[in-house]
Amino acid sequence: MLKLLALYFFTTLIHVPITEAKIREYNWEVKYEYKSPDCFRKQVITINGLSPGPTILAQQGDTVIVNVTNKLITESFAIHWHGIRQRGTPWSDGTAWVTQCPIGPGDTVTYEFKADRPGTYVYHAHYGMQRTAGLYGSIQVSLPDGVEEPFAYDFDQSILLNDWYHQSTSAQATGLTSIPYMWVGEPQSLLIQGKGKFNCSSVTLPTNICNTTNPECSPYVITVIPGKTYRLRIASLTALSALSFQIEGHKMTVVEADGYNVEPFEVDKLYIYSGETYSVIIKADQDPSRNYWATTNVISRHPNTPPGLAIFTYEPNEPQQSPPTVPPAGPVWNDTADQFAQSQALKARQGYIHTPPPTSDRTLVFLTTQNTINGYTRWAVNNVSLDIPETPFLIALKYNLPNAMDQTPPPDTYDSLNYDINNVAKNKNATSSTAIYRLKFNTTVDVIMQNANTMKMSHSETHPWHLHGHDFWVLGNGIGKFDLKEDTKKFNLVNPVMKNTVPVFPFGWTALRFQADNPGVWAFHCHIEPHFYLGMGVAFEAGVEKVGKLPTFIMGCGQSRGLLN
Amino acid sequence: MLKLLALYFFTTLIHVPITEAKIREYNWEVKYEYKSPDCFRKQVITINGLSPGPTILAQQGDTVIVNVTNKLITESFAIHWHGIRQRGTPWSDGTAWVTQCPIGPGDTVTYEFKADRPGTYVYHAHYGMQRTAGLYGSIQVSLPDGVEEPFAYDFDQSILLNDWYHQSTSAQATGLTSIPYMWVGEPQSLLIQGKGKFNCSSVTLPTNICNTTNPECSPYVITVIPGKTYRLRIASLTALSALSFQIEGHKMTVVEADGYNVEPFEVDKLYIYSGETYSVIIKADQDPSRNYWATTNVISRHPNTPPGLAIFTYEPNEPQQSPPTVPPAGPVWNDTADQFAQSQALKARQGYIHTPPPTSDRTLVFLTTQNTINGYTRWAVNNVSLDIPETPFLIALKYNLPNAMDQTPPPDTYDSLNYDINNVAKNKNATSSTAIYRLKFNTTVDVIMQNANTMKMSHSETHPWHLHGHDFWVLGNGIGKFDLKEDTKKFNLVNPVMKNTVPVFPFGWTALRFQADNPGVWAFHCHIEPHFYLGMGVAFEAGVEKVGKLPTFIMGCGQSRGLLN
């Protein structure tokens, strides 16, 4: 109700008759404000005073228009519409230095794009480390009138999961690019729909800075009516953490992932990686006289952050009443086998299978490693760490500005034969470049993501990889070094799930296939914020010559300064 | 020596024969780095790794070229060359939203201007609250070969004074524009040439964050040779604090202020307000067997910050050896009479008098007050608080873009008869506007700065007012309400000092006269960083139609986006 009110006050929804595609127009003001999402007061980037920002609601086929005004003081930003493919509007992808110049202070720009697929998506800042400042929110795209989901529910609710740091994003970013390297460390708390609880008594801080009784950090409440069925649209936009999510005493049935219907399967807890979205169906079928815990826990990394807690309450209970139980323990953080099993369970739902092309035209094998460049810690793909270009790639390529970026193509593969993924690399050095991958338009591309040991002995991390502008088929994954001969034979070409974000497990690989059928330039990167910030990503160009006239709102930096007229 | 080496390594000086005007070219990279100037580690904006940045050295008539690259992560900035009049180059004044769009991340721009007057100047960030992040340095303009100063010295040295906050500028700025208002408070330390000493044991912080033995915060050392004479060019770029500066056991003779020779007078301690520069002559004529303290203290506000300490050492003593004495006490902080007396002592030096025009064509009487606008705390001039325009004033006026700013002229005076400057105003509300003062070109303008009670009972502050693009004569000052009839009669029209920054004392007034003979748009504002940030300033336009073609580097924001071609 409050959320609806907030939407009413803070956004402008233009309703036209529901029989035709509608325009959903939002006016957003982006600025810094002091907030205490986990009881600790810090600077947060808000949209119309909110973090998470307003939920974008659209119906398949609608046009979404977001007029964004930069009211930050000295900072620029860009907003990425994560999961929206931006077919025909690659300039609206909102990825700083890939598809646009950052939006400068004082400027108002208009993002316009089609919600061309139903499902659960998110939006978030895509510039530097700004996502961690709280600039994000949910997107729900519903089916056209008269079209039904293959699963039934009474109510629909978005829940954004996040990890939360008390250091400013700018301080984090500076530390990451310092010598000596200052890692951001584990988050101070986990947020469920923007609310967490930091233990203020663990530090010596005045109560105006940290106060666990501050109503701003009262737990998030999921209110249900006994007997009803709920669709929870769960998304993770963590900076770093892989998470589990569970609701005490309630099973969840996974039905959607990244906008695609999946063969339903039941879980006690959902594993979710940064950049992923899931819909789960949950029935309010337990003892309605009490409340239950909804919890999120760090997995994949040794947790140093307490679980995030929300309250799952049956009407008409007192919503903020703590459940009578201790919150259920999360899963064992390093049970990779169990995490892997959930990934394996994800299949396209019968009747909703998009069959992949049987073969690909080009295979990219991407070894992802932690490296050192001139003493700085970086992350690299095939030993090349992505540098920020002078001019956004989309503009540089569309306008054929060859000096704007490196021209030597980055490598399609790595020396798999001689590279030991299970040990610290003998040579930790890498190079960096602003070169990108040029794909032939309308071809099919396989990408094998190969994970390896980091610079620390016996240590490899889970990386969620996100592709802009496309969905991909997840053809397979495994632990160990990918075998181009044997593992390709085991690819699932029958009912692979389509996604836009997928985890690559420690020392493991994940195989993707996608069609380069969306003209533009698209980032493909690890969704862990400090990893992409340190170069763990690539960009793919395809059919840039087919891209329409670029709008001027994306220009104004580097060599695009002269293109504003 | 180290400084010279640093200059050698970090800047490019192009030397052409000294008989003609030279070009002094600098290449600067501006970025965030972790530094511990007062032993507390925080993010600092550096130039080529330094804060204070490299000292600009030029000879009168030289052209200074500074190529600045923005390597901040998501922030823009602008650099103001404080005291340089920018005659013929108003676009190089470096004042965000007045003379230029902020310089965006990744951009390289070139400031070019003539060092047309000898003297002591500074440069600093002029955007939001960024000056407090450490982006500043000294400018020394020497006389042409063969021209002598009217005072003798063997060595010349710049010393920048500052106050220092541990909170980031962004956090400060957000707090200032919050409801409830969060004032920045008193600084944590005072810096002498970028070095201070915070008492780390007063807080619970790990030693990697605060460590008083960190060599980065070893005291600044002024090394002298016994018997020699020194010119110390002392500048203050404090965010908030008025300061005193003294050297234990040594008298100082004030000889220059803001680039003008003044009738010499001797002081034990120098009072200096933010934005002011002074040259003092000091003789190394004391017992050379020991070191002495150089100290700076907060004045005008109840000090809550320990004195800043540097070491004045005679060669060949151990420079870092603490003097055997306790540092001398600073002056009584609220001895306004003594501070006022120093202002009164400032007269143009015989032989160097620039006689002011005997009358003015227009008199502006500026009442400056702390106010409330829609619940926000602001500062105002004649009840109007300056808002940031959509398009920089210089561009809007030169290109005649009337929609870019408010057109109703701000008031020339206030209701002096009915305003009680000694009490809290009955109506604290003010308005805000992007309107500016249009001056007739080549006319003489008087500005009477009238200080008043703040929103707190029996409380008024010292405000240093700085004029861009011009020097002004200081015709007089006093305590109480300015009397247009009586006080004008007492104006010093014989030997008034010329300055670019002048204090206005609590409950007092200061009268200035200047000639509007520099085509452009120029800020005139309180040099206290949070005060100008909250609207305590105006802008003057004169002869904008005579301004040459604006360079594109100042464009790209607001309505100037379309002017880049």
TrEMBL record, chains A, B:
<keyword id="KW-0325">Glycoprotein</keyword>
<keyword id="KW-0560">Oxidoreductase</keyword>
<protein>
    <recommendedName>
        <fullName>L-ascorbate oxidase</fullName>
        <ecNumber>1.10.3.3</ecNumber>
    </recommendedName>
</protein>
<dbReference type="GO" id="GO:0005576">
    <property type="term" value="C:extracellular region"/>
</dbReference>
<keyword id="KW-0479">Metal-binding</keyword>
<keyword id="KW-0186">Copper</keyword>
<dbReference type="InterPro" id="IPR002355">
    <property type="entry name" value="Cu_oxidase_Cu_BS"/>
</dbReference>
<dbReference type="InterPro" id="IPR011707">
    <property type="entry name" value="Cu-oxidase-like_N"/>
</dbReference>
<dbReference type="Pfam" id="PF07732">
    <property type="entry name" value="Cu-oxidase_3"/>
</dbReference>
<comment type="similarity">
    <text>Belongs to the multicopper oxidase family.</text>
</comment>
<dbReference type="InterPro" id="IPR034267">
    <property type="entry name" value="CuRO_3_AAO"/>
</dbReference>
<dbReference type="InterPro" id="IPR011706">
    <property type="entry name" value="Cu-oxidase_C"/>
</dbReference>
<comment type="subunit">
    <text>Dimer.</text>
</comment>
<dbReference type="Pfam" id="PF00394">
    <property type="entry name" value="Cu-oxidase"/>
</dbReference>
<dbReference type="GO" id="GO:0005507">
    <property type="term" value="F:copper ion binding"/>
</dbReference>
<keyword id="KW-0964">Secreted</keyword>
<dbReference type="InterPro" id="IPR017760">
    <property type="entry name" value="L-ascorbate_oxidase_pln"/>
</dbReference>
<feature type="domain" description="Plastocyanin-like">
    <location>
        <begin position="411"/>
        <end position="542"/>
    </location>
</feature>
<feature type="domain" description="Plastocyanin-like">
    <location>
        <begin position="158"/>
        <end position="316"/>
    </location>
</feature>
<dbReference type="InterPro" id="IPR045087">
    <property type="entry name" value="Cu-oxidase_fam"/>
</dbReference>
<dbReference type="Pfam" id="PF07731">
    <property type="entry name" value="Cu-oxidase_2"/>
</dbReference>
<feature type="domain" description="Plastocyanin-like">
    <location>
        <begin position="30"/>
        <end position="142"/>
    </location>
</feature>
<dbReference type="GO" id="GO:0008447">
    <property type="term" value="F:L-ascorbate oxidase activity"/>
</dbReference>
<feature type="signal peptide">
    <location>
        <begin position="1"/>
        <end position="21"/>
    </location>
</feature>
<keyword id="KW-0732">Signal</keyword>
<dbReference type="InterPro" id="IPR001117">
    <property type="entry name" value="Cu-oxidase_2nd"/>
</dbReference>
<dbReference type="InterPro" id="IPR008972">
    <property type="entry name" value="Cupredoxin"/>
</dbReference>
<keyword id="KW-0677">Repeat</keyword>
<keyword id="KW-1015">Disulfide bond</keyword>
